[in-house]
Amino acid sequence: MNFLVKFLKALNASEAPWQLSLALSLALVPGLTPMLSLHNLVVLFLALFLRLHLGLFLSFALLFSGVAYLLDPLLDSLGYAILTAPALQSLFEGWYQSSLMRLAAFNNTVVMGGLVLSLAVGIPGFFILNRLIRLYRFKLQAFVEKLPLIGSLRLFDFADGVPLSGGAK
Amino acid sequence: MMKIFRIQGLAVAALLAAALTVFILYFLDPLLKSLLEKGLSSALERQVSVGKLETALADFTIRLEEVAVQDPKEKGAAFWIRSVTFQPAPELLLEKKLMIREMEIRGLKARVPFAFAEETEASAGEEPKAEKKEEEDSPSFLSGLSFPDPRKVVESDGLPGVAKAKASAQALTGIKERWKGKIDAELSNEELKTMEAEAKALEKRLGSIKDAKDLLAAKKEAEAFMKKVEGYKKRVETMQKEFRSDYAAAQKEAKALRDLPEAEWKRIKEEYLPEEYTTMGVVQALFGDETAGYVKTAAELYDRLAPYLESEEEPAPPRLPGRYVTYGELPQVEEAPLFYLGRALVDGELNGVTFSGQIRSLSSDPAKMAPMTALFQGTEEGKYDNASASLVYDHSGSHPFADLRLEIDGLAKEKLSLDRIRFNDNRIDLTAHMTVDGERNLAGAGTALFTKTSPAFQQAKSKEEKLVAEVVESVKGFRVDGKIGGTVSAPALSITSDLDKKLSNALGKVIDREKAAFAAKLEKEVKARAGTEIASLTDQLGGLDGVRNAFSGREEGRKAIEAMVEKALKKEKKRLENDALKTLEKSLKGIRF
Asked: What is the average pLDDT across B351-363?
């Protein structure tokens, strides 16, 4: 519920759609892969560098981690299939010689499965979410504002007075 | 641009990067060093110190210098390494596992069970202390050869049989004194002489009988006298009976104690030189400790190594840990034990002997390493001066094994010391063979032949030590056989040697010689003590013989008196009978019918 409230607040807030969609897409990576991985450090830095919605990123990373428990068997199978794919063997053998790559645990089935799935879902998901947020703000936001339940949640309180629709691109 | 990037985020990232750099440059090495020392000390249960630790993050290499593992029982380090360089598998470090593909160990020094001469000489300053300890140890160590002073043995034993003989001799003295008094009193009284005189007077009286009336009177006097003699006889006979009883008891006692010296010797021999006092028993007593010392040293060595062999159960991870796919020599991460070492190049020095070699597939949990052992298959051979070693290993099949053969021909070792025995100018020929199979079972045997040795028993001072030295110096060669079984984690090592037998043969002669000398002295001492008492007893019996003879004299005197009176009575009776017949005949002649 908290995630939903946070998401709805962000959705109706002044941030640009890409800030929200990128936060969600990036959250998939630490969410679906083991948290203490080297690539997650890179993702965290990215989240800090880029002006995305940090609260949303952290909240959804946590949410996706919970989902990952259920997906672990799938991630393991997927990762194993990728890591043992004959076409990729030479690439992985090269990576395996690198301490940094081994430190990144690329050869772990759950890490590889989680990373590939998060990228596979996250990259197109970024564009799709962008589109959906825009559509929502233009066509549905005004209607939603009028719903009594939504109004009581105070989802439309803006501190900076930025207009509701549109936003920076 | 500013709408895409967050300035504060960049600042935080830059700050983090700077902090990380500072940490890596200034704090990582000391922190790792401290953690390593603490972790190793805790794992090995003995103090581990690392002189210097350097990390190179570019190739993830760690280099340790001056690593020392303290010996918990003695001063100084049990292991000392000049430098160790290795590349741990980083992904396993995250899982708190240490996996090393390649390692270089340079300048390893370790204490080994044998204390070679160099070390003994090096610690010359501590010799007086060691000497003192040996002196303290000597009595128990050489108890098998320590024959006591025979006189002290006799004194401490007390010879109870001799004490009994002494008591008997004292009792006999009492008997003798009593009878001597009685017989002296008997001899001093004039009773027998008076009776003799009375008998002579009676004889004369009988000779002067005139008629029958006189005869009857004389006969009454004779009967009264004979009654007196009979009374005397009864008194002397009673006394004699008592004496005979005492004399017989004394003789019986003396007879029983006649074999006392031999009996006492037999008893004391059983006690002080029992049948179990065999050569082997003494050898065991003398050299058992030495053999036990090896076992103890091996146990201590195993104790030191045991922490390296132990593994710990890993806690269950919160998420599915996944599987690690390998593309090289490293094993599956999830299968990896807490510690694994692929290959280590080692060189160092063991008590003055330099060596170099390799350690392969060292693991805290070798059972989990089975899948990767397929990578190790082949033969390696090495030669060092007059030593050669070959290792055949094959972990590719369903029955993995490693087979090690070691041969050393004519190794010259100037000095080799056990606890008390030093072997000089040794030539050692060694052959050993050991197999480790996939189930980690050990099977092996080895023989070491020591020839041309000149053994010497150190610091022989006491008589017993000199005897042992004599025995030891007679050994010119021996062999040591070893067998190993069990498993890698619980090896069963047995060591046998013909040194015991060789020493026992030589020692047997010395022991027999010493034993015979001791026995002869002890026998002489026992028999001398017991013989004195027996002689005293014989003297007492001799005194009683005098009493017996005196009794016999009295008996003879009394018998003579009796015979004299009887003879006189008989004679007179006959004479009177003749006289009566003549008178009767004369009377009859005057009568006419």
From this structure: 65
